[in-house]
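Incident log, structure service

09:12 report received: a user says their structure output differs between two submissions of the same chain.
09:20 pulled the input from the user's history:
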Amino acid sequence: MSGRRPAPVVMGTVRPGWEGVRDAFARGQAEDPGGAQLAVRHGGRTVADLWTPGTGRFGYGAAPDEAAGAPGAGSADGGGVTGSEAFRADSVGVLMSVSKALVAVCAHLLIERGILDPGDPVARHWPEFAAAGKAETTVADLLAHRSGLPAYTDDPAGLPQALLLDPAARVRALAAMSPVWDPGKAFLYHALTYGDLVGEVVRRVSGESVGRFFAREVAGPLGLDLWIGLPEREEHRFVPQRAVRPDPTPGQVAQAVERAGLAPDDRLATSLRASSAELGRATASFGTRRGRAAEFPAAGGIGDARSLARLYAALVGPVDGVRLLSAATVERARSPRTDHLPQPGVLRRLDGPHRSRFGLGFELPRPGAPLLGEGSFGHAGAGGRLGMAHPESGLAVGYVCTAMTWEPSAGPDPRWMPWTEAVRQAAGLGGG
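09:34 re-ran on a clean worker, output below:
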């Protein structure tokens, strides 16, 4: 006996010529303790719609007493999710930072309609934002993680939970903050604040919260099961995520920041510590009905792989007569906006081929997240979720998982690599 685990049960359909994607999906999920969905569209039509309930080694299929104790399994406010439900084709889950692309789409719709411009000062639409040296910060700076506002507060403990769950309080905090670096002169990932920065501009321009705007202008016309703020009527479909390793403690985060060369009282150091604490609180809240209902635009989107693929397909071509963005808008969105910039302060010493790359609101290919290769764009999310498209080939992909196993510092998620190569080959792009 080889000792290899049997391939997981993979359900769903593939079109002729795409069978290799199903086999590759099975290989990629072989060691995954959770469930996953993979949807692929090519030229606007669905070519793969696959899912696996998982191996039963982690939450799904486990005994109720095992599942109930898993991180994020229960609902502290009576949400009714126990975590023992099987992951199904129609299940939905937290998308983490894949959500940022949903917010970006809203901004680009307004840009395409001529009522917003990437070069606009943010304060033109959000006057309070001009405070504390931010009068010249542009909408493009927000979309490309260049605004110097990676946290809501200078307190290394981060914004308290009560304020973090209040969208208006988060927006007020950002308006009052002074940037940690000169906006537009450096970039660093804005894990949570991105959603409120861009989302508030969408609200000021459209008159609706970004969640409501997305529902009306994007999800509704396309029939997507994607939400920024999960409706209560959809709670029965929600399956929680599971962490396979404990979150770092505040002390461990502080040590990591110091190892990067930052003094404990350096403002960038306190912002990094605050951002980590805030992200941890927000992620924990997604295990509650209140957290799922709240609009956390940067990380709290909820949906399935099928809808992600349909969304990305409608960005690069028509889907049932609906195309969201023009080719010119997509070209602007995927044009590099940070390749020429350093990371702030001493973090520039860590710059290298594995650092993040951003267009306007979307991630661009890099070794740690190669997406669909050169020319593709999309967004990954904590734990391994992924949405992406390749305009030239007409490919659009959504991947949703329940086990948070991806470790970005280690490179691409091993679950992605087999089926990503198979998708590229089936579309005639070759491997890699």
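09:41 both user submissions now match this output. Likely a transient worker issue. Closing.
09:42 reviewer note: Confidence is low (pLDDT under 50) at residues 58-84. The first strand starts at residue 11 and ends at 14.
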